[in-house]
Design brief:
This protein has 122 residues and is mainly alpha-helical. The protein has 8 helices and 2 strands, in the order H-H-H-H-H-H-H-H-E-E.
């Protein structure tokens, strides 16, 4: 049992950080968002129980992470959580909202600066 807990320590550390940072240390709220029972989350967190694949997918989805990122701590796409959240919001937005968002983002861009060779650079 001890070896299993040590093996899953990276996962439990990542979950603990997610719960602390995004759910104000509210394990029950995170479990609810993931669609699992608080007891299941407690078993993973405190006992180092390896989650079943379907449970792990729920944890990754609730964490707004890929399964790979949640398991390894490495994002294969190089996106931070804010960028992932923007993509998730974009995918769920109505087309007219997407158009408005593009207009807002374009209006808020940093101005381009001229470089020594005449090219533009941000």
């Amino acid at each position: 049992m001890k070896k299993q807990k040590e093996k899953n320590q990276g996962l439990t550390d990542r979950l603990a950080n997610i719960i602390k940072d995004r759910f104000k240390k509210n394990n029950s709220e995170f479990a609810r968002k993931a669609g699992i029972t608080p007891q299941t989350l407690k078993s993973i967190m405190n006992r180092g129980t390896a989650p079943e694949v379907d449970t792990f997918l729920k944890l990754a989805t609730a964490s707004n992470m890929t399964m790979e990122e949640l398991w390894t701590g490495h994002d294969p796409y190089g996106l931070d959580s804010n960028k992932r959240e923007l993509l998730r919001l974009w995918d769920n937005a109505l087309p007219e909202c997407q158009k408005g968002a593009v207009e807002v983002l374009r209006a808020g861009q940093m101005p381009l600066k001229k470089t020594v060779d005449g090219d533009t650079d941000k």
